[in-house]
Amino acid sequence: MPEDVEQAEAEPATEKPAATTFDAETVNWVQNEFPSAMYIQKALFGVENECSAHRVRTDSGKITDADVADAISSYITPGTFAEARLALSRDRVVVLYGPADIGKRASAIALLREVTDRPLFRLAPSVSVHQLAERKYDAGLGVAVIDHLPEQVDDGDFDWQVLRDRLADSGAYLVLTMANKPEAAADAVQCVPWARPDLTRVLRARMSVPPSTVQLSALAESLAGSPAIRDVVELAGRLEAGEPVDRAVGHFDLTVLKTVTAWFDEKPSRRAILEVTTLAFAAGAGERDFEATLTALEGHLGKHLPEPVPTDDVPAEVSLPQRRHGLTGPGGLIVRRTVNSAFGTRGELVFSTPACHRHVLRTLWDRMEVGFWDAVRAWLDERVVRGSWRMTGGLATLAEFAFGEVHDLLDSWASGSRGRAGQRAAVLVVSAMVYRDELAPAALRIARWWSGGGAARRWTAALILSGDLAIRYPLEAVSRLWRLCAEGPTGKGNATVAFGTLFVTLTRGTGDAGVVLRTLTAKLNRFDGTGGNVVLRSVAVSATLAVLSAREWPEGRHAFLIFLGRHPGRVDEVARLWAVVLRYRPTRLRALVALRAALTHLAEHAADATERVARLGTALGAELTQSDRILFQVDLLRVAGRATDAVTALLNAFLTALSPNNPARKELR
Questions:
Q1: How do beta strands 93-97 and 191-193 pair?
Q2: How far apart are alpha carbons 395 and 409 in whole angstroms?
Q3: CB count in 10 Å sphere of residue 314
Q4: How far is CA 462 from CA 170, 334, 484, in A?
Q5: Is the pLDDT assigned to residue 636 strictly greater than 70?
Q6: CA of 434: how far to CAs of 35, 126, 364, 396, 472, in Å?
Q7: How are beta strands 334-341 and 344-351 bridged, if at all?
Q8: Residue 481, pLDDT score
Q9: What is the pTM of this model?
């Protein structure tokens, strides 16, 4: 296993005092406003995009047998596979470079499995070559860095040479995938250009019944357009389901791009272009909201690109225009559909095909001048203040083609230029980027940049790191969030509260949030005892309390109980953390209140509550001294208050398990 693969990074060299209290404003912000970032699909209601169709994939940590099987079960080797395999066997390291969506991820896993049967691990794309060169590796270990983000400062030719020698000495294997060839690596590491495998072979491998000759003939033009491999995989599924070829290829990027390009080539009116632009940032809006948003965009465009003065050739409008009627006419890109809601049916506007969203933005960026985009930026800046979140899906999509344009706007919002509303929108956009393979590494880099910025940016970064980004890069998220906590308060309060959100996110998204518990346990042990860092131990205790107090939104279940329900054998690990926050005086009362709330929720909703409480009480009792147990019992009785019979019985069962032989033990009445 790579050194520290499950531990957070080292603390900053300069340790700064950190606040240890939870202010009410901070807690309210995280618990009541931030969940929409954790549930980004709900935040983008009405938008048919990758967020609503897919879960976030974990891209760091151990590569499971299921991951390997999924990657190589139908894998088709491209022409350069043999060259890469020879380089990896000889040098222990190889770089695959090429554009996105050509199968580099699966190729990296397939190459590693070709040369070793030992465990495989993924590291976050942000790890530098310098950091890779400093790691220790076990013999035979396979490591992949997918979509590596080169560091201009760290990734020098010397670092590549040290990395190659380190891997040779340890006998481990490393595959890095990148978009472009790293010039600094040329003399030390073999860099192999990667290309798509034969797409007809990919299609055959993905279908239980191979496509017929007639089908392949009809698909020849579409496959010749070099679609993304994910499109070919989806095509196989559609053909298997019995869709005719002409419909099955409708989702191909090339097919949709031709449709969108043809629409723009017809020189649509100023109003029509603004309509598709509005929909790109307001998909799923009803007619009234759509038209109000469109009117606002027209106003901003009028300031940056004034409409021509009417002439004989361009007369002014006299009749009241019937624009809603023409909005969804034949041959257009916009359709109106009816959806059900809690208050009955309602109409909403969407693109005729979900993929149109992406290509409308792509074509707008390719064709429209700076005045147009200045108007769009001012319009979005105004909308964010009003709390409009539909724009987040459009901005995340635009980032694929115009990352600099989107980042400049998000950076302004993250810095607090538009208050909480702007920070929240920035979090939502970056979280939406996490769902896209080509943008996820950039989302991680944004979080890293902001975590080293001013107080407002660091707070925004804390929210991102504790959201869906953590599902994709759990080790990096825990490490970066700890650094933020260790560096002290952010603009909105103490970042330790975000550890609770992080624990909920990983519990919900990965099923195992153990990396959070292991990290906090390691920090508590490191800073404990004589000579330990008192300030950083206080930070670790506060973060631990945030984790144990955290509840899943919106059901209100305590995350640590969900974790124990899935991993009952780790009750001792959880109990040790409870013992820490209960013994620490500044957090004792809040810990007692949180524990009482958790036991109450368990009594009211779990059929096996008594059994689960007995296990937790026994484990906690083993972590406390006799005097600790007596004091804890007294204090718990004080905060228990009046309760239902079921809750009272469960609390008594907990106290019995905690200290079964304590003659001073009392029961609740």
A1: parallel
A2: 10
A3: 9
A4: 36, 38, 7
A5: yes
A6: 16, 14, 23, 9, 7
A7: antiparallel
A8: 94
A9: 0.81
Residue with tokens 């807690």: 27
- pLDDT of 456 over the 60 cut: yes
- 341, 344, 348, 351: CA torsion to nearest 10: 60
Tokens read off for 35: 């969940």
Which superfamily does CATH assign the domain made up of 77-193 to?
Answer: P-loop containing nucleotide triphosphate hydrolases (3.40.50.300)
How far is the CA of 486 from the CAs of 14, 15, 27, 112, in angstroms? 10, 7, 19, 37
- Per residue in 541-590, pLDDT (tens digit) is 999 999 999 998 777 889 999 999 999 999 999 999 999 999 999 999 99
Out of 132-141, 143-152, 356-365, 514-523, least confident range:
143-152
Sheet arrangement for strand 93-97? 61-63, 120-123, 142-145, 173-178, 93-97, 191-193
* Beta carbons of 460 and 426 less than 8 angstroms apart: yes
Alpha-carbon distance of 561 to 599, in angstroms, equals: 9
What ranges in 488-584 are assigned the alpha helix state H?
497-509, 514-526, 534-549, 559-566, 571-583
CA dist 461 and 223 (Å) reads: 41
CA dist., res. 68 & res. 78, Å (int) = 18
CA nearest neighbour of 506 among 558, 471, 545 = 471
Cα–Cα distance measured from residue 397 to residue 432, given in angstroms and rounded to the nearest whole number: 9
Nearest to 444 by CA among 479, 487, 416: 479
Q: How confident is the model at residue 343 (pLDDT cuts 50, 70, 90)?
A: low
For residue 279, which of 339, 357, 169 has the smallest C-alpha distance?
Answer: 357
Instruction: Determine the longest span between alpha carbons in the chain, in angstroms.
Output: 101
Evaluate the omega torsion of the peptide bond into residue 554 and state whether it is cis, within 30 degrees of 0. yes
Question: Taking Cα atoms as reference points, which of 260, 244, 112 lies closest to residue 174?
Answer: 112
Least confident of 189-193, 270-274, 526-530: 526-530
Among candidate residues 295, 467, 444, 477, the one with its CA nearest the CA of residue 383: 295
Q: Where are the domains of the chain?
A: 77-193, 199-251
